Amino acid sequence: MSIDARRDASAGRRRSDDRTNVAARDAADPPGGARAWLVWGVAAAVYFLAMFHRNGMSAAALQAQERFDVGPALLSALPMVQLAVYVVLQVPSGVLADRLGPRRSLLIGLGVMAVGVILFAVAPEIRSAVAGRVLIGAGDALVFLNVIRIGALWFPRHQYALVSALTGLTGGIGQIVSVAPLSALLRGVGWEASFLGAGAVSVLIGLLVLLAVRDHPGGHAESAHAAPVSVLESVREALSTRGPQVGMAAHAVIMVPFGVLGILWGYPLLEQGYGLSPGLTGLLLTGAAVVPMGLVPFLARLTGSRPGLRKPLGLTLSWTISLAWLAVVVWPGGLPPLEVTGAVVVASAFGAVLAPSVSFDYARDGMPAHRTGVASGLVNMSGFTSITVGVVGAGVLLDLQGADASFQLAFVPMTAVSLLAAATLTLLLRGYPKRD
């Protein structure tokens, strides 16, 4: 047998052994407990801040348009470049998460984000602003995967859906803070002071990570630092496993519409599309995100203890959100009444905060706990690729329409992607085996 053949056979046996032993690994799950929640809480604070940085462009969109003297299409380049960097770095970030561990990865991410937001704060023109958003996207790419990885390394398997949901909930709160309060800060203390303050907070949270976060609980170091496999093999393993495939499809629809609104187009939709004031717009977007939050931990705990509920929950969220936005974009005579669009936005927010408990819980099916980073990265890449299509597509279509721009037409690309992902999820879940 040739060397390459022996290597391939060895890799195949390793993948087979990993999948065969998943149940055995789960039986030796970490115990969780107060220390686990402390470590997760500090890491979740990093994600909270990352969401503030990521979604700040929504509240700052109109001010940025004036500050840098750009139109809608060029304005969309700011979050587009940030998201593109974030998406491209998901797999490398997953590999880094598996090899460096959460603590060092989070510290690197915080440092890069801090530099990026400071550059964005003082940027005199659009090119410098884009460079700042690139750095924010690069640092942000390292955050969520490592918070999720802490959930895999510190908590038992049946709590993973709950930890993932609470992580998403933390991000949702961060998104709220990046809307109304940031809008008020921008009006009150100005552009530079608002974003420089956010950079300083990044440094302070980095100190908390140094003090509190550890990669794994005592007695579980071996699984956390198992022998690494190649990047190509890690990607191939995740893509060939049904769980991550389902997670990718779910994330590409459930989190996307509210992601598009939160990252850039929520404020313009309500201010320009419906003529609302900035204060009322911020209040409505904040309320839309707050309303579903109370139910998220309950549903996540339920799906964690009863995995069979994941399928109906995922399909219900996917088709409800997709068809609701289809109704918005085909509503006769222009945008539907504000009450209708508001209900659709609330449904989208519910999906966004619950998405991690569905998508990333599926992504762990069939995967060993110590190699969840790449699978989670692929799931995240799927969702944010769809968001990028929605953000950029809306900006291009608004720019092409000129003064009489229609937000109905602008949201067509986002709606089309959501419908396609919902159909793909439906096909993948046919005959999907139940998790014990």
TrEMBL record:
<feature type="transmembrane region" description="Helical">
    <location>
        <begin position="246"/>
        <end position="267"/>
    </location>
</feature>
<feature type="transmembrane region" description="Helical">
    <location>
        <begin position="312"/>
        <end position="334"/>
    </location>
</feature>
<feature type="domain" description="Major facilitator superfamily (MFS) profile">
    <location>
        <begin position="39"/>
        <end position="433"/>
    </location>
</feature>
<feature type="transmembrane region" description="Helical">
    <location>
        <begin position="129"/>
        <end position="148"/>
    </location>
</feature>
<feature type="compositionally biased region" description="Basic and acidic residues">
    <location>
        <begin position="1"/>
        <end position="20"/>
    </location>
</feature>
<feature type="transmembrane region" description="Helical">
    <location>
        <begin position="193"/>
        <end position="213"/>
    </location>
</feature>
<keyword id="KW-0813">Transport</keyword>
<feature type="transmembrane region" description="Helical">
    <location>
        <begin position="160"/>
        <end position="181"/>
    </location>
</feature>
<feature type="transmembrane region" description="Helical">
    <location>
        <begin position="410"/>
        <end position="429"/>
    </location>
</feature>
<dbReference type="InterPro" id="IPR011701">
    <property type="entry name" value="MFS"/>
</dbReference>
<dbReference type="InterPro" id="IPR036259">
    <property type="entry name" value="MFS_trans_sf"/>
</dbReference>
<keyword id="KW-1133">Transmembrane helix</keyword>
<keyword id="KW-0812">Transmembrane</keyword>
<dbReference type="Pfam" id="PF07690">
    <property type="entry name" value="MFS_1"/>
</dbReference>
<feature type="transmembrane region" description="Helical">
    <location>
        <begin position="105"/>
        <end position="123"/>
    </location>
</feature>
<feature type="region of interest" description="Disordered">
    <location>
        <begin position="1"/>
        <end position="30"/>
    </location>
</feature>
<dbReference type="GO" id="GO:0022857">
    <property type="term" value="F:transmembrane transporter activity"/>
</dbReference>
<feature type="transmembrane region" description="Helical">
    <location>
        <begin position="374"/>
        <end position="398"/>
    </location>
</feature>
<feature type="transmembrane region" description="Helical">
    <location>
        <begin position="34"/>
        <end position="53"/>
    </location>
</feature>
<dbReference type="GO" id="GO:0005886">
    <property type="term" value="C:plasma membrane"/>
</dbReference>
<keyword id="KW-0472">Membrane</keyword>
<feature type="transmembrane region" description="Helical">
    <location>
        <begin position="340"/>
        <end position="362"/>
    </location>
</feature>
<dbReference type="InterPro" id="IPR020846">
    <property type="entry name" value="MFS_dom"/>
</dbReference>
<feature type="transmembrane region" description="Helical">
    <location>
        <begin position="279"/>
        <end position="300"/>
    </location>
</feature>
<feature type="transmembrane region" description="Helical">
    <location>
        <begin position="73"/>
        <end position="93"/>
    </location>
</feature>
<protein>
    <submittedName>
        <fullName>Sugar phosphate permease</fullName>
    </submittedName>
</protein>
